């Protein structure tokens, strides 16, 4: 397989895989945050991104808001959805079995998709790009001879900024409280740390990350109801599992790894295999679950 891959194709895989994997990393980090706080996989994580897209789109088309303001509105819509989900769905079920919470988040996702269908039917809409793609904006940066658009560079930049901010956050007193509550909730309560308040904070952070991923994914392309859930949630979940469902750095690295492997599946070498890029994601997920279920970057408990 290695011999069949040309140097130019391999360069494209590495560059585009890393950039596309940044979106998966943002979703994966959000999934890990919620899992650490609530002990449940959040099926609604993708819809935080889709709601952000709709919020920004409506702000521009209906209220004629500037593009930058519309992006902020989209992020606020995602944040509101995350906080409402935690307050109205997760908190009343806080002491319920984890499978109940999992089903509840799936219900939230289905409700959001239903509202999106009600708002726009199934008509694909064109989202606005943050960059006007002129010839000069497509090849100003060409690592390994691969032209990379400014839109993709912004995606990678957002991941780097998010990683730095999260690193600094978890070195702050509030961030340490989040880590303590996720690892020892009973002991944290005894020393005055509110586990429910920490849950609200982590759901808000996860919603913002999901919103950012959605806006970056949709930039300059068409979108429809349930877009991020359908296109990004499974690769993001795979990234979280590969990195270790309790490891934030692992989630970021797992997203990049999944992006590269998915790009590898799209090589011309595998043109005869229909959907090879998507099949590769499921192969990686199954392999990690069977061989190292705790993930590549997490220690065995």
Explain this structure to me?
With 301 residues, the protein is mostly helical. The protein has a single domain (7-125, 147-291), classed as ABC transporter involved in vitamin B12 uptake, BtuC. It has 13 helices and two strands. The chain has helices spanning 7-38, 45-61, 67-90, 98-120, 135-138, 150-169, 173-183, 185-190, 195-218, 227-231, 233-243, 248-265, 276-291; strands at residues 125-126, 222-223. It has a two-stranded antiparallel ribbon with strand order 1-2. The longest helix is centred in the N-terminal third of the chain and has 32 residues, at 7-38. The two termini are 36 Å apart.
Structural features:
301 residues; mainly alpha; ABC transporter involved in vitamin B12 uptake, BtuC; 13 helices; globular
**Gross morphology:** globular
Report the uncertain regions. Answer: 131-136
Assembly context of the chains = single chain
> In order across it, which strands form the biggest sheet?
1-2
DSSP, total strands: 2
- The percentage of residues in β strands lies in under 5%
| Overall tally of structural domains | 1
Helix content: over 70%
- Give the H and E element order: HHHHEHHHHHEHHHH
Give me the number of helical elements.
13
Would you spell out the secondary-structure blueprint of this structure?
Blueprint: H1 7-38, H2 45-61, H3 67-90, H4 98-120, E1 125-126, H5 135-138, H6 150-169, H7 173-183, H8 185-190, H9 195-218, E2 222-223, H10 227-231, H11 233-243, H12 248-265, H13 276-291
Antiparallel strand pairs: 1-2
């Amino acid at each position: 397989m290695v011999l069949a891959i040309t140097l130019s194709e391999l360069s494209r895989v590495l560059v585009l895989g890393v950039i596309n994997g940044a979106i998966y990393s943002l979703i994966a980090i959000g999934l890990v945050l919620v899992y650490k706080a609530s002990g449940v996989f959040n099926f609604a994580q993708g819809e935080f991104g889709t709601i952000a897209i709709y919020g920004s789109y409506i702000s521009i088309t209906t209220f004629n808001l500037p593009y930058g303001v519309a992006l902020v509105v989209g992020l606020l819509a995602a944040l509101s959805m995350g906080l409402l989900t935690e307050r109205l769905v997760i908190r009343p079920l806080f002491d319920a079995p984890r499978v109940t919470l999992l089903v509840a988040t799936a219900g939230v996702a289905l409700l959001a998709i239903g509202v999106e269908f009600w708002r726009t039917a199934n008509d694909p809409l064109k989202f606005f790009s943050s960059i006007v793609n002129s010839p000069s904006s497509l090849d100003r940066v060409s690592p390994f001879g691969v032209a990379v658009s400014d839109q993709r560079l912004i995606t990678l930049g957002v991941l780097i900024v998010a990683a730095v901010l999260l690193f600094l956050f978890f070195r702050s007193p509030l961030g340490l409280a989040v880590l303590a509550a996720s690892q020892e909730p009973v002991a944290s309560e005894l020393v005055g740390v509110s586990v429910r308040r920490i849950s609200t904070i982590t759901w808000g952070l996860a919603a913002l990350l999901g919103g950012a991923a959605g806006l970056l994914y949709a930039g300059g392309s068409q979108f429809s109801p349930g877009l991020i859930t359908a296109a990004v949630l499974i690769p993001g979940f795979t990234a979280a599992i590969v990195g270790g469902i309790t490891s934030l750095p692992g989630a970021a690295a797992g997203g990049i790894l999944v992006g590269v492997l998915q790009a590898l599946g799209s090589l011309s070498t595998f043109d005869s295999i229909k959907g090879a890029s998507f099949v590769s994601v499921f192969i990686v997920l199954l392999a990690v679950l069977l061989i190292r279920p705790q993930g590549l970057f997490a220690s065995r408990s």
